[in-house]
């Protein structure tokens, strides 16, 4: 019969009670639509095994091609580790994460137009072919158009598809007037399609391949071991090891090209978190327009859940008919209402506030900073309650 000494028992007890022993490390691999080949090489079981060994605790790994969902996860700190394209890391780095590195050298992106489009300014009233809204290609397109004083609302149409590599073919077929491609892809394509398209604009460097970001509040030794694994051991799981650490400015630039809401909304009062708290105490209703999962995880205390299905462009000229605003019907139109979501990059509260104002809600407020601003000010939050 084996006997366990009291000190050993105490050690086992402390180990079992420690957060590190109980917690499970979570990671997500976010896949850019054009990077499917790289994603297919990643072996999920080997990835989980490698992370578990490196962190000294159990790890789970999810994968997703839905970049809108992944970007929401960065705003709500949904995972301990994000592995994804530059815009995913850029968003995470603003919300309590730190950079481990990138797997490839930085890329340049090109806005390429048909031979009949002379320059970026000539894109007004033209058609643009892009992948999903939260793709790095869409970020780059918006930035290059903005530099020429244009936005997506100045175009005839923006076609969002799952296969961005088909944009060049769409140019040749005449079904679009412009698209965005990586400089390396353009060099290969243009060599065999001379004179069929032209470069209208070139982006600043963007971190290439996968970028890895980890939560700052993970234990220092865990972060160090994870860094070592991503630098030398991740190739066994099908992920190229981190090759470099891009300048922070490259990620900031990507974030700035992101889909930030305007600073103001005509017909709606923009307020701060503390002003929202005061209005709420006076009877105003805080309306949370995020997903049910986000609402249950953490929300402004006393907020009501009124999410909707968002399909329209993240743009001031969004088409409200493409979105489902039925959830707003449960909000009393005669009470002051405050719309909030996940901060300046989240368009849901902007769109809901604009629609509510147009539908005759008596007094409409917009908390642009949303839950992140409320939380940063130390105002009361709640979680795990029923949505309703």
From TrEMBL:
The keyword Signal applies. This is Rhodanese-related sulfurtransferase/ABC-type phosphate/phosphonate transport system substrate-binding protein. The keyword Repressor does not apply. Keywords: Signal, Transferase. InterPro entries: Rhodanese-like_dom, Rhodanese-like_dom_sf. CDD domains: RHOD (cd00158). Residues 280-383 form the Rhodanese domain. Residues 1-23 form the signal peptide. One of its GO terms (molecular function) is thiosulfate-cyanide sulfurtransferase activity. It holds the Pfam family Rhodanese.
